[in-house]
Amino acid sequence: MKKLLLVIGFVLLCLVSLTEAGAKQRTSKNVRQQQKLTEQKIKQTDAQIKENARVMKSKLNDLNKLQAESQTINRNIVSLQASIDSLETVAQAARDSVAVLDRRLTDLRDSYADILRNSRHSRMAMNNLAFIFSSESFTQAFRRANALKQFTRWRERKVNQIKSVKARLDERLRYVDTLTTQNRELAMRMSMRHAELRQRASETDKIVSSLKGKEADLRKLLREQQRQATALDRELDKIIKEEQRKALLEEQKRKKQEEERRKAEERRRAEEKRKADERQDDKGKAAGPSDSNASKTRPAPAEKPGEKPAAEAKRPAPSPALSTNFAANKGRLSYPVNPHNIVRRFGRQQHPLHKNVMTDNAGIDMETSSGAAVKCVFDGEVSAIFCPDGYNNVVLVRHGQYLTVYANLGTLSVRTGDKVKTGQTLGTVYVDAGDNGRSILHFEIRNAVNAKSVTKENPEVWLR
Fold first, then answer.
1. What is the per-residue DSSP string for 269-297?
2. What letter would DSSP give residue 413?
3. Residue in 381, 388, 379 with CA at minimum distance from that of residue 430
4. Are both 204 and 336 inside the same structural domain?
5. Which residue of 174, 212, 324, 356 pairs with 400 in a disulfide if CB–CB is 3.0 to 4.6 A?
6. CB of 252 within 8 A of CB of 411?
7. 222 vs 217: CA distance, rounded Å
8. Residue 363 lies in domain
9. What confidence tens digit (pLDDT) does each residue in 136-165 have?
């Protein structure tokens, strides 16, 4: 019995040993394969997350574009409605004047007809000559002839007056017809705008429906975009403040150099005057007491009023500041890209999906043709080029105290320090291959009075 138990124990021990060995062999073979599978899953998950973010970004861009187009259409509708109301007011006034002119024309015609009938009845259908020759005396004949002349002139005046009123009436009627036609055309255009607005609303609803259930991802993407915009804003503020600091130092250096030159000039003139006095004293001693006294009393030659010393006149004038005419062109600057379609406007905007979320835009975002050229809006100098996260290349151009910002450039045609002209190409807009080749330019205008006063301007007010 003991031998049987020993045999059974030995067999069980062998089985356990074989099982452990097989398990160890299986684990060592599959460990690398398992690692590869895990890495592939991680890559697939990462790729899926990136693809979801790309699709979501594209849809949000579509949504922003639809929202901007809807805002533009709404403004057009309001403008058209105001034009229709104004035309209707003018047309009603024109119709009232037509009624007044028509009544006046009727009264003129009736009175003219009555007078003609009465005059014929009083002369019993006699002609003018018979009416004159039937007079009992020369005086009566003269009076009748004079009355006929006056009547003829009155009749001519009445006829001309009737013709004038008739012409004014016809002109006013044509004007009313023109206003009616214009009003009808405006109503048709407004109807088309309403149809476009309904289409945009339908497209917006489709995008919103496709994004339902992804609120967390949307908020994450929105936070990332806002972070990038804030980082760009901070970088621009940093660059502008540094420029202002350097400009202040240059101004202080220039003033110090001017002061040193002025003092050196004063010392030189004092030294020349001292030497001239010494020479005059030497001449006075050699010529005698009388000449010496005369030389002492002789006044020094005075400078002409307004005349500068030779050294000061030859001193080069300080270099002129950059043109400050930028402000005079408000509302007349050309858009930096064409064609252009504003997809995000300046200032605080309500998010198209999250009604309680407000976004802030320091400029405007314009969608244009893929890889379109970016033009400088005014003469200036390229003061900085940098590459912040989310905006590719950014070009900063200074126009006196004003600066223009061109962000999201794919290629560059200028370098820092280049003088640029109005309409000169700065580069091309970045082509987003992950967003169906879409190109969106971010454009800003800033007024940098000094380092502590930099304001963001609405570019739409400056551009035409």
1. HHHHHHHHHHHHHHHHHHH-HHHHHHHHH
2. S
3. 388
4. no
5. 324
6. no
7. 8
8. 332-462
9. 677 777 776 777 677 677 777 777 777 787
CB 441 within 8 A of CB 410: no
Structure tokens at 88: 């209707």
CATH classification of the domain holding 141? 1.10.287
Q: Is residue 367 part of a domain?
A: yes
Residue listed under structure tokens 């005369």: 294
Q: Are residues 205 and 346 in the same domain?
A: no
Q: Which two tokens stand for residue 126?
A: 């006699």
What is the rounded CA–CA span in Å between residue 203 and residue 216?
22
Where is the domain boundary, 175, 210, 245?
210
**Residue 102 forms part of a structural domain:** yes
The span from the CA of 54 to the CA of 69, in Å, is: 22
The beta strand positions in 183-238, using DSSP E, are none
Over residues 263-313, the pLDDT tens digits come to 888 888 888 888 888 788 777 766 655 544 544 445 544 444 444 444 444
Q: Do 46 and 176 belong to one domain? A: yes
Are residue 46 and residue 192 in the same domain, yes or no? yes
**Looking at 160, 181, 210, which one is the last position of a domain?**
210
pTM tops 0.85: no
Report the C-alpha gap between 61 and 210 in whole angstroms.
Answer: 14
Domain count of the fold of the chain: 2
Nearest to 344 by CA among 52, 77, 70: 70
| Full DSSP string of 127-194 | -HHHHHHT-SSHHHHHHHHHHHHHHHHHHHHHHHHHHHHHHHHHHHHHHHHHHHHHHHHHHHHHHHHH
